[in-house]
Design a protein that fits this description.
By secondary structure, the protein is an all-alpha fold. The protein contains 6 helices and no strands. Helix 2 packs antiparallel against helix 3, helix 2 crosses helix 6 and helix 4 packs antiparallel against helix 5. The chain is globular and about 35 Å long. 34% of the residues are buried.
């Protein structure tokens, strides 16, 4: 259900799927290099964030990361809990903005903090859009 939701958002907001895949692989590679053996849940969350980080471009290019984060936090996303949407939103925001902090005292201080360094390092150095799909990104 969640994979279908991510694909549907990518279609709705006209995300370049090939670019999203390159960014996702790049971010995952960085995350693995920083953390050794990542959990499947963290790897999936990072892949989703990388796939959806540009949805805000359809609203405005300037500050697109803020628009992306807002849409992810507020939209109806079948299969995702509010906590998961919040984590996705904060990861997307963190790639260009300050480290995300939790809004409520009961939540973890920095939601998604463990994944933010990978997103923050990967997305400013996104693989070029014209990069061939077969190019090896393992040499990060």
């Amino acid at each position: 259900m969640r994979e279908a939701t991510v694909r549907q958002f990518m279609r709705r907001y006209q995300v370049d799927a090939a670019q999203a895949e390159r960014v996702a692989r790049f971010a995952q590679n960085i995350y693995e290099n920083l953390n050794g053996e990542p959990s499947e849940a963290d790897t999936t969350m990072l892949r989703w964030a990388a796939s959806l980080h540009e949805i805000g471009i359809s609203i405005a290019h300037t500050g697109y990361h803020k628009h992306s984060a807002y849409v992810l936090a507020q939209a109806d996303m079948p299969g995702f809990s509010q906590k998961e949407q919040s984590r996705l939103s904060r990861l997307v925001l963190a790639h260009r903005a300050s480290w995300p902090r939790s809004g409520s005292p009961g939540e973890q201080f920095r939601v998604g903090f463990d994944l933010c360094p990978a997103a923050r390092r990967a997305l400013p150095f996104e693989p070029a859009r014209q990069q061939a799909a077969g190019d090896d990104l393992q040499s990060v």
